[in-house]
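Key result, reporting period 2: structure in, sequence out.
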């Protein structure tokens, strides 16, 4: 189930009114700004797109040292190698700095690592390759801050190193000419959240001595890298992306235009979301499937025909990437279907033989969305080791979990939401057990969705949507606003699409007359179980839709729930049921809370017979319909599990629940789950 816990924003309406008056902005925009904590004058001006000067690049640490050494290399025609990374940020960083230095007449080349052969960052092997190019000066972009031993080796080989990076420094810094990183403790830069291309851009501005020309020439690439790297769209990043999108929509460099074309976006205004879901994946696919240098070649390409050919190669790589991740996802879900208990672990671990390592992180993200818990995806390499990627949710640090369980790992790294790891394959079972123990020792964690504010059905109109556009571009730390529509009553449902995978839902607010139309896209079967007359709550996004030359408001469902349910109780029920599936130790009060009585069994069985083929994932809906208090999801799930164990019901591969015909009397207490609960607390 993809149900999340809803956090409804608390807004200071008096403060919002003050912002609206002082800054002459739409009251609803002011309400959203206040709700997001955008209350300082500089932040408000950033969000409203009111021009501010760019930050002085020389406020970044070691910038003068970096500029002096690079200018010396340009003047003496020393060989400079720009060393980047294989993701979209690393590729755009390399494109910006390499292009700029080449335009200055520098003797410059570039090198990008292979994801599978070289891994991230500098290594002795990479340094040897760079030395073989006749290099005097290495300038890193989007990496280098942790290259302690590599910096020593570079010095031994008689080369100089300038590091530009945006990752957090460790306790020791590389021994080199300059380290330009906004996260250094001695940094005076008021803005810290640049990505790699943002730092590379600031370096170019510092060399130029004027930001204007560099801004005009490269801001499109800076915007692509900034959005792709999912850094906060606040402060100067917001300025980069806003201006970059304007540049892309008015004048496109051949490589970017070809990329837009193969992504099917030629007839659209390019927004940040188009970069996130259209352009960035194709740039990243090059590094995941083949070589990132192909993506760099595209961004540097000046001939439209050649750019088109390269873009088609990237598009093919992206298709291959899709196929690889779908294979892994299908294999994982088949494993969970055959062994349901695996998907109830507090941290899901799935692994297979020779899975494509370039897509493991994407698969982990998709499984996280499906199962609503941290995920680790491992590929058995066949040499006794498995390598993998981890993704987590807000409120649970996967990096801390790996640190606690590090005795089972060969190496790992990352941050709270994402990490990479290598493990001996034979250690995976013990590692999984240790992860479970750690997770159970932590406070309850569950994915959440932030709802900006409640909306009345009557207030949904084009003026409202136009107001929201003032907060674009949307992205990390400035997501597209989400709104809560509560106590909606279903009037009707229409299935759309070749596979009936989309729903158009007609509803009205309970007690009101105005009807609203909501779209629910790519809905798994049974994911919206509500029928005519049912009441539900919805989290929605609002957009404009042009149809037959007429603009209309598009209300798109993001998450739903039965009207008025208690989210805290929902999370408690789901987490407790997970422990039951895993046959973990329970407290007496947990057993009492989870054990269904005979009347509940009877109501559930009768309900399933009355409504055949109800989807297995509609637990919350069933609980709302048949439990006495309307919300004890855990008892309903336990009752359904007991029925499955006793062959009273069967769950089909598509999730449909089928009631088995039987005339024999069955003692529900003989179900293994009921015996387990009895064992946990004999008094129940």
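The corresponding designed sequence is given below.
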């Amino acid at each position: 189930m993809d149900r999340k816990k809803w956090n409804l924003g608390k807004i200071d309406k008096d403060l919002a009114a003050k912002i609206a008056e002082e800054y002459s902005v739409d009251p609803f925009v002011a309400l959203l700004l206040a709700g997001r904590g955008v209350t300082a004058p500089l932040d408000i001006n950033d969000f409203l797109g009111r021009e501010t000067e760019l930050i002085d690049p020389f406020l970044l640490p070691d910038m003068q040292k970096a500029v002096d050494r690079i200018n010396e290399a340009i003047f003496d025609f020393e060989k400079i190698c720009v060393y980047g990374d294989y993701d979209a940020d690393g590729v755009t960083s390399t494109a910006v700095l390499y292009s700029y230095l080449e335009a200055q007449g520098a003797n410059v080349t570039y090198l990008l690592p292979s994801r599978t052969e070289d891994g991230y960052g500098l290594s002795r092997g990479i340094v040897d390759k760079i030395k073989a190019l006749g290099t005097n000066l290495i300038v890193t972009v989007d990496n280098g801050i942790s290259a302690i031993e590599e910096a020593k080796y570079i010095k031994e080989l008689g080369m100089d190193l300038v590091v530009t990076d945006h990752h957090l420094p460790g306790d020791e810094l590389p021994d080199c000419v300059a380290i330009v990183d906004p996260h250094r403790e001695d940094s005076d830069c008021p803005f810290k959240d640049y990505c790699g291309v943002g730092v590379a851009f600031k370096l170019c501005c510092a060399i130029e001595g004027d930001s204007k020309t560099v801004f005009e020439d490269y801001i499109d690439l800076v915007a692509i890298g900034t959005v792709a790297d999912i850094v906060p769209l606040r402060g100067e990043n917001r300025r980069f992306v806003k201006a970059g999108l304007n540049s892309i929509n008015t004048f496109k460099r051949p490589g970017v235009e070809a990329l837009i074309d193969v992504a099917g976006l030629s007839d659209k205004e390019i927004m940040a979301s188009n970069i996130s879901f259209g352009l960035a994946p194709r740039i990243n696919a090059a590094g995941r499937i083949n070589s990132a240098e192909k993506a760099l070649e595209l961004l540097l390409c000046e001939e439209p025909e050649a750019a088109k050919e390269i873009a088609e190669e990237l598009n093919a790589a992206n298709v291959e990437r899709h196929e690889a991740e779908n294979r892994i996802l299908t294999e994982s879900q088949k494993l969970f279907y055959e062994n349901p208990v695996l998907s109830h672990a507090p941290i899901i671990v799935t692994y297979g033989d020779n899975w494509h390592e370039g897509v493991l992180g994407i698969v982990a993200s998709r499984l996280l969305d499906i199962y609503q818990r941290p995920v680790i995806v491992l590929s058995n390499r066949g040499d006794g080791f498995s390598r993998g990627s981890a993704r987590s949710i807000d409120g649970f640090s996967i990096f801390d979990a790996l640190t606690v369980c590090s005795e089972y790992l060969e190496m790992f790294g990352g941050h709270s939401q994402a990490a990479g790891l290598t493990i001996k394959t034979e250690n995976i079972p013990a590692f999984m057990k240790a992860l479970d123990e750690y997770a159970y020792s932590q406070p309850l964690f569950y994915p959440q969705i932030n709802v900006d504010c409640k909306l009345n059905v009557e207030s949904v109109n084009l003026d409202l949507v136009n107001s929201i556009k003032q907060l674009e571009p949307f992205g990390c730390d400035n997501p597209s606003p989400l709104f809560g529509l509560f106590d909606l009553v279903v009037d009707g449902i229409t299935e759309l699409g070749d596979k009936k995978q989309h729903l158009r839902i007609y509803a009205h607010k309970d007690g009101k007359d105005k009807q609203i139309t909501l779209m629910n896209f790519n809905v798994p079967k049974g994911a919206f179980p509500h029928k005519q007359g049912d009441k539900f709550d919805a989290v929605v996004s609002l957009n404009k839709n042009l149809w037959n030359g007429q603009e209309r408001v598009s209300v798109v469902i993001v998450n739903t729930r039965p009207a008025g349910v208690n989210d805290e109780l929902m999370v408690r029920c789901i987490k407790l049921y997970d422990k039951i599936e895993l046959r973990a130790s329970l407290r007496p009060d947990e057993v009492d809370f989870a054990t269904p009585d005979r009347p509940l069994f009877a109501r559930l069985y009768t309900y399933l017979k009355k409504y055949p083929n109800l989807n297995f994932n509609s637990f919350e809906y069933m609980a709302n319909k048949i439990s006495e208090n309307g919300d004890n999801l855990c008892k309903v799930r336990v009752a359904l599990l007991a029925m499955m164990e006793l062959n009273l019901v069967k769950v089909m591969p598509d999730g449909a629940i089928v009631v088995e015909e039987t005339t024999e009397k069955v003692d529900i207490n003989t179900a293994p789950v009921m015996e387990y609960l009895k064992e946990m607390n004999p008094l129940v």
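DSSP finds 24 helices and 20 strands in the chain. The chain has a mean pLDDT of 92. This case is discussed further under Risks and Mitigation.
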